[in-house]
Design brief:
There is one protein chain. By secondary structure, the chain is mainly alpha-helical. Among the domains are: 56 residues, no CATH class; 102 residues, no CATH class. Helix content is 72%, strand content 0%. Helix 2 packs across helix 3, helix 2 runs antiparallel to helix 9 and helix 5 packs across helix 6. The longest helix has 44 residues. It is extended and about 75 Å long. It starts with a helix and ends in a 5-residue tail after the last helix.
Length: 273
């Protein structure tokens, strides 16, 4: 560690101590004020450490990143142990272990099927050894294959069948305004968002957008003439859709940024109320 790094670390440690002491004094009338002040200062330090990556990669950012990954892994490991192993497996395996962990014993008779996940879990742990690491491939393959099979059905239903069904819509009417002819349509013409005109236009945009998007991915015919113009419309539809999705994602990240900025200026620095 060079001299510049030592100076920076010393300055950061001094600022951390000053912030900790200042918040502990301001919380002197509260219970556990020292611990709460430390947690508040640590949260601010980790937030600024993550933001420091905007300048360049540095040890503070790496520390915050590794701490986040490590704490997350430990948290979910504990969650899995207490909810899956202790909560579901042990009560079905052993009455003695159930009493040790103070969970109700559920198995009425011995069942070998409950030992299968135990054996597979032990085989997964063989990945940590050098000579028997190959044993972990079998339970890992079972997990990946089962998860892929189950998720395939779920995604097929939610991302394919539901979306295809949503494109089957009436082009001249809706539930609140059934089609009664052009006379009734013109006499009741309005620009309300729930009106028949706007609904018809929206349904036609969805219908033509789906058709043009499918044409863009149809490569068995050269994209020329009307077919080519429809393909270009499909490109616009795809770009607008991707742009809207990206914008929605960015706005979600911006809301997280606003939350952290608010925390720094309100809870930590107490500049804003």
């Amino acid at each position: 560690m060079n001299r510049t790094t030592l100076i920076v670390v010393a300055i950061v440690a001094a600022l951390f101590a000053v912030s900790w002491i200042a918040h502990a004094v301001s919380m002197s009338g509260q219970k556990d004020n020292v611990v709460d002040a430390f947690m508040l200062t640590m949260a601010a330090f980790l937030t600024l450490a993550i933001f420091s990556f905007l300048y360049r990669d540095n040890p503070f950012y790496k520390f915050a990143e590794h701490l986040f990954v490590g704490v997350s892994a430990a948290f979910w490991m504990c969650q899995g142990f207490w909810s899956t192993i202790v909560g579901n497996l042990i009560p079905r395996l052993s009455e003695g272990l159930s009493g040790f962990f103070q969970v109700p014993y559920q198995a009425s008779s011995w069942n070998f099927a409950y030992w299968i996940p135990v054996i597979l879990g032990l085989m997964l742990l063989m990945r940590l050894t050098k000579d028997y690491g190959w044993l972990s491939r079998w339970p890992l393959a079972l997990i990946v294959g089962t998860t892929a099979g189950l998720n395939f059905v779920r995604y097929l239903r939610s991302d394919f069948i539901v979306q295809v069904s949503a494109t089957f819509m009436p082009l001249l009417s809706n539930e609140s305004h059934p089609w009664e002819g052009f006379g009734a349509f013109l006499s009741n013409l309005n620009l309300a968002a729930t009106g028949q005109l706007v609904t018809i236009v929206a349904n036609w945009v969805i219908f033509l957008g789906v058709i043009c998007g499918i044409i863009y991915f149809f490569f068995s015919k050269e994209h020329t003439g009307i077919f080519g113009r429809a393909s270009r419309v499909g490109i616009w539809i795809l770009m607008i859709t991707f742009g809207a999705g990206f914008g929605y994602t960015v706005m979600g990240r911006i809301s997280l940024l606003v939350g952290r900025i608010t925390f720094l200026f309100k809870d930590w620095l107490q500049i804003i109320s």
